[in-house]
Amino acid sequence: MSDSSTDPTPPLEPAEAAETARVEKEAEKATEQTTRGWAAVGAGLGHNLGLVVALALLAVVGLITAGDRFASVDNVMTILRLAAVIGVVSIGMTFVITGGGIDLSVGAIVALSSVWATTLATQQMANDVHWLLMVTTALVVGGACGLVNGLLISYGGIVPFIATLAMLASARGLAEILSDRKTQIVSVPGFTDALAGDFLGVPRLVWIFAVVAVIGWIVLNRTTFGRRTLAVGGNPEAARLAGIDVRRHTVLLYVVVGVCCGIAAIMLVSRTTTGSATHGMLYELDAIAAVVIGGTLLSGGRGTIVGTVFGVLIFTTLSNVFTLNNLSISAQSVVKGLIIVVAVLLQTRLARRPSS
Amino acid sequence: MTDPSPEQETPAAGQSALLQMRGIVKRFPGVLALGGVDLDVRAGEVHCLLGQNGAGKSTLIKVLSASYQPDEGEIVWQGSATKLSTPDAAMGLGISTIYQELDLVDGLTVTENIFLGHEISSGGFSRRHEATARARALLARLGHSEITPHRLVGDLSPAAQQIVSMARALSHDTKLLILDEPSAVLDQEEVRNLFRVVRDLTEQGVAVVYISHRLEEIRQIGDRITVLKDGRTVATGLAVADTPTAELIRLMTGRDIEYAFPPRPAHSHDTEVVLEVRGLSGERFRDVDLTVHAGEIVGLAGLVGAGRSEILETVYGARRSTQGTVGVGGRKLRRGSVRSAVAAGVGLCPEERKSQGLLLDQAVYRNVTISSLRRFAKSGFLDFSEERRAAEELSRSLDVRPPGVDRPVRNLSGGNQQKVVLARWLLRECKVLLLDEPTRGVDVGARTEIYNLIRRLADEGVAVVVVSSEVEEVLGLADRVLVVREGSVVHEGPATEIDESRVLDLVMEGDVA
């Protein structure tokens, strides 16, 4: 949010006598603006510099330990494809956390959406009508789960942690009931054809992530919705007294993350060609971790989409490097935990410095 | 506490200083917060620290409590040069600070709060009986035995919580007690009580550094005064009794200003009625009628807790009314809906500016535009430069200092933060402005500006309702005054036809009867 502080104020009236003074003043203003511009760029880099360095370090480790197996185009695409699904969830999570909430149910919502979109009935209808019906189903299911979360939190007065914990349990339970604990194979040709494969040499899933991230950035930084999210997360009481409908806005935030989960479910179904109640296990932890190491404040009021994207890439690259070196998932988890701690420690140090 | 009692000053005057600060300098990146401050405090005196917001008072007390390390200067404690390296060390010497925002834990008992961080225990087990006994003794020393040690602090009134804070300070064997605006949350009776406690403490040899914006309080409680301005000491060790108020104001502001209210225009009340409240009842008040014409300022006087803030917040829709109607420009507002009020052109500057009014970490311009976002949005997308331009224009016209709308509101002084909240409603061109304690935490110089601003708004046709604990402020500023006691309006009339003592009578009557 360090951008766009450089809009020039329109020049004042050109009184001829004061022309020299005016020119001087404007030159002064211009330099001030350039320095401000540079300061903004610096601050932007500064915010994300740690993340860039961390990602670069990981890449160096990958290069040294796995060489060409790491540095191949194929492998980079693998990393991006893996990052895409959790990335979309994390974008949604960024909104909820910036707005002062938390959503523990994202993994369960992904599972439920994936199952609902791939039941025999849905697939049959999709075959009869159009494969987009599966997509719509997942989005609606995800959005509806988010709506329930939001209503419980806003109007039921249940704290987000508990409301979404309940959703975590029941959504995954419902997914198990719907699927009878079986993996549902996708047999709608149009669906798999449309989402699998590449576009301009990049997997379609990665395009989807990119589009979601760009939209997320625009919405958070450039729209009234984003501004209100910052206000609601930063000081809900002040936001309410300023005339913002805090409760409605909070509901919308959970719907946003729910819809993101629906999108992620579709991507996951396409990647695995299955729908399953075991999809999206522990996504909530991965998403929260990515958001937090990206620099979004867990207490709300400050959020960064770019940071979240970096956070997701760091974790995905990490697991890729571990996999290439045949290291266990358990070792991966240990390092992941360390990264979270170090990242947050560094952030609190950096955050404390200028504000004293 | 009517006399500043010179008797108490004489013994103190003979003693050497308990604390001396010499040439204290504290820099922050780009800001010189303290540029050479001197302070002498003697044992057993009440030493008042005066200065406008941003004069460096908070920084100075943070240096004194070792939250900040000074960059230059010398601190002498009981005759020997000292370095206050950590807050713990400062406390160990006997320096305790009670901040404006009390740092108590609501969910713990009075005893637990008093001994928080230095619990009385053996082998890890707390000795609860001993702690309770000592807490009781401390509270008795403060003359507040009625606060029982096992009550939860969250259940106590702000005044009682303050006493608990002081008991906590005394539990550290405090020699110097710093009180940062202690009267801000208290009503007049509680303030009197606080003064008695402070006097008791000084008689026991404790030195008190007292910070307040209210000059009349300093007159009642203070022995000597140090005045800060722009991070420097402009006068130190002034005897309260010998220093006229006008002199103090001159020292604080550096210019001779009157503690003055803008003149009232000769009012014709045949302007249209903008705000019409009929038979409004709600939490802590009942059956309130209130009519405000365009261009009129109506003041609500009354004690803290009489229901004034509740009335304002209910009119605004932030609280739900149980009965009655609120009409703006002839249209009825939806019950309990802030949005309906805002849409009809009502604005509220809430009592707790920081927690209810502002997004402290957000830039000034964002705080100004937050209620008018739609105006700067084209199909949901915000036009930042337009936002900034509008905020800049307003902040120039309200003289928000320092200028520049990109800095976080947190960095502004109280008076300038208030201007930012006002600017928010000016931007909406609201018809009704509800102001709850508009000058709380605002220094003397900025107060006059706020008063002028409010009058200017009224002259532009806004209907203004002002709630204030300071009777003088209500009488000086408003055209018409409503006196509220225990949730009911007990008097209504032109401000010019009633004086301060009559208002106080009306306000107190209930307690006397």
Question: Would you give an account of this structure?
Answer:
The complex is a heterodimer of chains A (356) and B (513). Chain A is an all-alpha fold and 356 residues long. Chain A has one domain: ABC transporter involved in vitamin B12 uptake, BtuC (Orthogonal Bundle), CATH 1.10.3470. Chain A has helices at 19-66, 68-71, 73-98, 106-117, 120-128, 132-154, 160-179, 189-195, 204-222, 224-234, 236-241, 246-272, 283-294, 305-324, 329-355; strands spanning 184-185, 198-199, 202-203, 274-275. In chain A, the strands form 2 sheets. A two-stranded antiparallel sheet of chain A has the order 1-4. A two-stranded antiparallel ribbon of chain A has the order 2-3. Chain A is globular. Chain B is α/β, with parallel strands linked by helices and 513 residues long. Helices cover 35% and strands 26% of the residues of chain B. Chain B folds into 3 domains: 1-94 and 177-256, Rossmann fold; 103-172, no CATH class; 273-512, Rossmann fold. Chain B is globular and about 70 Å long. Classes of the chains: A mainly alpha (356), B alpha/beta (513). Chain A binds chain B through residues 4-5, 7, 9, 218, 222-225, 227-228, 230-231, 234-235, 237-245, 301-302, 354, 356, and chain B through 28-29, 316, 318, 338-339, 341-343, 348, 350, 355-362, 366, 370-371, 373-374, 377, 380-382, 384-385, 388-389, 392, 406, 424.
Secondary structure layout:
The complex is a heterodimer of chains A (356) and B (513).
Chain A: H1 19-66, H2 68-71, H3 73-98, H4 106-117, H5 120-128, H6 132-154, H7 160-179, E1 184-185, H8 189-195, E2 198-199, E3 202-203, H9 204-222, H10 224-234, H11 236-241, H12 246-272, E4 274-275, H13 283-294, H14 305-324, H15 329-355
Helix pairs in contact in A: 1-14, 3-9, 3-10, 3-12, 3-13, 3-14, 4-6, 4-7, 4-12, 5-6, 6-7, 6-12, 9-10, 10-12, 13-14, 14-15
Chain B: H1 6-14, E1 17-28, E2 31-42, E3 46-50, H2 57-64, E4 72-77, E5 80-82, H3 87-93, E6 95-98, H4 110-114, E7 121-122, E8 125-126, H5 128-141, H6 158-170, E9 176-180, H7 188-203, E10 207-211, H8 215-221, E11 224-229, E12 232-239, H9 245-253, E13 273-282, E14 285-293, E15 297-302, H10 308-315, E16 323-328, E17 331-332, H11 338-343, E18 346-349, H12 353-357, H13 364-369, E19 377-378, E20 381-382, H14 384-397, H15 414-427, E21 432-436, H16 444-459, E22 463-468, H17 471-477, E23 480-485, E24 488-494, H18 500-512
Parallel strand pairs in B: 3-10, 3-11, 6-9, 9-10, 15-22, 15-23, 18-21, 21-22
Antiparallel strand pairs in B: 1-2, 1-4, 4-5, 7-8, 11-12, 13-14, 13-16, 16-17, 19-20, 23-24
Helix pairs in contact in B: 14-15, 15-16
